[in-house]
Write a structure and sequence with these properties.
The protein is mainly β. It is built from one helix and eight strands. A four-stranded antiparallel sheet has the order 1-8-3-6.
Length: about 140
């Protein structure tokens, strides 16, 4: 176990890591079963150079029992994805997740000539977040 993982284990923060090279004209999903209640507090991701908005990402939680979906980070008004080119994004959020949920990263590469890469880190706070005791 790495030093960072040991730190997060004491804080009861679950770090998640997603990332892949998305092939030419390819789409798909990466998923993580939550298994324990918590709150998604932070999402960071990088879209590597060359993508020029052809690599599209959408991050949401999906209730496995009801199949309902909720965005974890909001996308621009006229799009149902986030894209970029050599961009690094950090989103602070507070989206509750339960043991019935899964985190889904949907990716699509609309470039018909080149593969593109992304990496994503996400933190799920299982202790209720920094303000959990303030309002009790």
């Amino acid at each position: 176990m790495s030093l960072i993982d040991k730190f997060f284990a004491k804080m009861d923060i679950k770090p998640l890591h997603f990332g892949r090279k998305v092939g030419v004209s390819t789409s798909g999903t990466e998923t993580y079963d939550v298994k324990k209640n918590g709150t998604v507090e932070k999402v960071e991701f990088r879209i590597y150079s060359g993508a020029e908005d052809t690599l599209r990402l959408n991050i949401y939680k999906k209730d496995q029992e009801t199949d309902s979906k909720q965005q974890i980070i909001e996308t621009p008004d006229d799009q149902d994805f986030i894209g970029g080119n050599e961009d690094f994004f950090t989103f602070r959020t507070s989206v509750p997740v339960t043991s019935d949920d899964e985190i889904v990263v949907k990716y699509e590469n609309t470039d018909g000539s080149n593969p593109h890469r992304y990496k994503m880190n996400m933190e799920i706070d299982r202790t209720g977040g920094l303000l959990s005791n303030v309002f009790r």
